[in-house]
Amino acid sequence: MTLHAITVLGHDRPGIIAETTDKIAGLGLNLEDSTMTLLRGHFAMMLVCEGPADDAEIEQALAPLTADGSLTVTVREVPAERAEAGDGSSWVLSVHGGDRPGIVSAVVAVIAGVGGNITDLTTRLASDFYLLVAEVDLPSGTDVAAVESELSRVAADLGVGVTLRAAETDEL
Amino acid sequence: MSVNTRVLEWTETDLGVAGEQREVVRAPASVLATPGERVDPTSPDVVRLAADLVATMRVSPGCVGLAAPQVGVGAKVFCVDVSEHPKTREHHGTFVLCNAEVVSGSRNEKAREGCMSVPDLTGDVKRPSRIVVRGQLPGTGEEVELEAEAFEARALQHEIDHCDGLLFLDRAAGAHAVYARKTYL
């Protein structure tokens, strides 16, 4: 099984996903995981596809997307990764406040400092209001109260608010 | 909120048959995406299905509800029992409903849901936290209407959705509101 990581970045317009996935399907590739969003109005998509084509063939098939210079495409073969079934705990971290440099780096440093892993992250800047929301895995045995206290200290220095709440799943 | 005492007093022994464990099916089984048929709650097959749903729920760790499509039967029958769950407030104990529908709902709340039939994903779903549900009890077929809140309300809506061929993923709160499950049950 060969996996390819594909990124498509650039000027947004209707039809980019339709064209990209049509080329991918045309090569017989299976689109496994993907994520797409607009970042400050720019189209940003990342895909992992599985299939027999090699990187050069995929690049060639996607070349029409880049022809007018409005989009950049990258293709790279990647190894299969196994998702670890860890024994840690899942949390949602929210930070918001007035925009200033260094909010993300200061806050995520606290998470990294205890061996926590961020598995999903979104930041948004809306005029001068800054927002960060992250899915965080903390290793088992983490002193969560200490993490919260350190986050509060860092947030106070930055003049922003921070919350860390358990990402509980209701099993139904 | 008032608890419906008829439903609260109902137990699976009222069915008069011993339930047997059935195998739980997983997505992408087509039965999970197909609206279930309405049933005759007095028919022996439905009574047996009701008993089997409760029996299967009982042996599944952490399971607070199970709908017929989850055991491969495309029918509007489900069981719930949230009485042991820490998020439960008022509840109706163990019961089975046939042909159930949500009559009304209010006070939307968002929570992350998981499902035995979709073991690898969880998702944020917004649902009313106070609802009125109408359905029929298996065996006697009597029609009951009950008010549910909090966790019981969420569980009932999740199971009624199964009976209508819907998964929690059909109600995901957004494109980035679905998550790979990290810890396995």
Automatic annotation (TrEMBL), chain A:
Cleavable signal peptide: none
Superkingdom of origin: Bacteria
Domain ACT: 5-80, 92-165
InterPro entries associated with the record: ACT-like_dom_sf, ACT_dom, UPF0237/GcvR_regulator
Name used for this protein in its record: Amino acid-binding protein
TrEMBL record, chain B:
Principal EC category: hydrolase
Cited InterPro entries: Peptide_deformylase (IPR023635), Peptide_deformylase_sf (IPR036821)
GO molecular function (one): peptide deformylase activity
A Pfam family annotated for this UniProt entry: Pep_deformylase
Superkingdom of the organism of origin: Bacteria
UniProt-annotated binding residues for Fe cation: 115, 158, 162
Cofactor binding: number and manner: Binds 1 Fe(2+) ion.
Keywords: Hydrolase, Iron, Metal-binding, Protein biosynthesis
Keyword Oxidoreductase set for record: no
Signal sequence segment: none
EC number(s) per entry: 3.5.1.88
Catalyzed chemical reaction(s): N-terminal N-formyl-L-methionyl-[peptide] + H2O = N-terminal L-methionyl-[peptide] + formate
Active site per the UniProt annotation: 159
Membrane spanning residue stretches: none
Cofactors that this protein relies on: Fe(2+)
Known role: Removes the formyl group from the N-terminal Met of newly synthesized proteins. Requires at least a dipeptide for an efficient rate of reaction. N-terminal L-methionine is a prerequisite for activity but the enzyme has broad specificity at other positions.
Family: Belongs to the polypeptide deformylase family.
Name this polypeptide is given: Peptide deformylase
Organism annotation: Nocardioides pini
